[in-house]
Amino acid sequence: MLDPSISYNRYKFLGFEFLTWLWFVIEKDQDQIRNIDKELMSLEIGNRIVLETRRKEGIESVTIKGDDAGFEEGFLALKKGAVVTELNLSYKAGDQEWRFTIKAESLNIVNLKPPHTGSIESQEDLEGAILEKAYLYEKAVQFVDNLFKQFIQLRISNDWNTRVVPLAREWIHSYGKSGVA
């Protein structure tokens, strides 16, 4: 059995590839995501993306922040070989919205903001509110788990090198040519 720190360093590239793939799928093929959650209304890039390019000289980091931020710098970084290390998402299912960030190295979900729940007016409402909050947190975690499962199944298939990688490269290099991703 491998030492956990060795495994962590050996396989952390999967998180980078997952978030880069997720950005690509959000922009170009939302049908893949709809297969995971039938209630999905939308999955959108939120207000923060962090990309890193690792070189001999060190790590170059690009952070794109803001609700109306453009992705030009991000695509330029991707063209230089950068990978996504953090991705903020807005996930809408039914009439509910979750906002959260996924960190690539550990696949941790941080800053999770679930939909609002009803107000607590009595002590009896408290238990229901706690259970509802737990359910809402679990729904977001389960959604990310299912996205990662779909990514891994695709990543180990023959489609990865024959179909997905060429389409992702085309997406990266086409950005800016037509003015849109």
3D architecture notes:
This protein is of the alpha+beta class and 181 residues long. The protein has one domain (4-174). Helix content is 48%, strand content 27%. The protein is built from 6 helices and 5 strands. The protein has helices at 4-11, 13-28, 30-34, 72-79, 123-155, 159-174, and strands at 40-55, 58-65, 83-93, 96-103, 109-113. Strands 2-1-3-4-5 form a 5-stranded antiparallel sheet. The protein starts with a helix and ends in a 7-residue tail after the last helix.
Provide a compact summary of the structure.
Helix content is 48%, strand content 27%.
Write the layout of secondary structure elements.
Blueprint: H1 4-11, H2 13-28, H3 30-34, E1 40-55, E2 58-65, H4 72-79, E3 83-93, E4 96-103, E5 109-113, H5 123-155, H6 159-174
Antiparallel strand pairs: 1-2, 1-3, 3-4, 4-5
Distance between the termini: 43 Å
Give the overall shape. Answer: globular
Structural class: alpha+beta
- Helix percentage: 40-55%
Cα Rg = 18 Å
Number of strands: 5
Q: Helix segment count? A: 6
User: Unreliable runs, pLDDT <50, ≥5 residues?
Assistant: none
| Beta-strand proportion | 25-35%
The helix/strand series, from N terminus to C terminus, equals HHHEEHEEEHH
